[in-house]
Design goal:
By secondary structure, the chain is an alpha/beta fold. 50% of the residues lie in helices and 23% in strands. A five-stranded mixed β-sheet has the order 1-2-3-4-5, sandwiched between helices.
């Protein structure tokens, strides 16, 4: 079967369903299609692999590059529904430990939404804490000790584990 990519949006997540064989002949088109699907402002991607027959190192390279880019932008990448042959390639290549792989689309969507929200909260907390670490300036923008304490309290609340 020829490789194909079907894209849809579920909430804030771009979901791409892959089918066919992802190899050196199709990886360049796959990379372009992913870039188009994600555009400039989308940072959360789920790859549904239930119809993916096979993947080679060329396809894995595209996934790795995409995952690194999304992570650097505060987003995330997850995969779901890998067939036995595809899962074996991920396991042998060591990619099963690099990517979040879930059994179902629903599980992967839930993980992505929670993970990206936690990443964004941590980024905000770090930003708030960084402001507290800056040396106090003697001008109107320095902020009082109480304001810095409030930022620290907010950062601590954002970083507190749920549950």
């Amino acid at each position: 079967m020829a490789f194909a990519l079907h894209t849809e949006t579920v909430g804030t997540v771009t979901v791409c369903t892959l089918s066919g064989q992802l190899d050196s002949r199709t990886s360049s088109a796959f990379e372009r299609d992913l870039a188009t699907a994600l555009g400039q402002d989308k940072r959360t991607l789920l790859l549904d692999c239930r119809e993916l027959e096979f993947i080679t190192s060329a396809g894995l390279r595209v996934l790795l590059m995409t995952g690194k880019r999304l992570s650097a932008e505060g987003g995330g990448l997850a995969l779901c529904a890998l067939g036995a042959a595809t899962r074996q390639v991920f396991d042998i290549a060591g990619f099963s430990g690099i990517f979040q792989i879930r059994a179902t689309r629903d599980e992967a969507l839930a993980w992505l939404v929670e993970s990206v929200a936690a990443t964004r909260a941590a980024d905000v907390a770090r930003s708030l804490l960084k402001r507290d670490e800056e040396p106090a300036r003697h001008d109107a923008h320095a902020g009082s000790l109480a304001e810095r304490s409030d930022r620290s309290d907010l950062a601590a609340e954002l970083l507190k584990p749920k549950g």
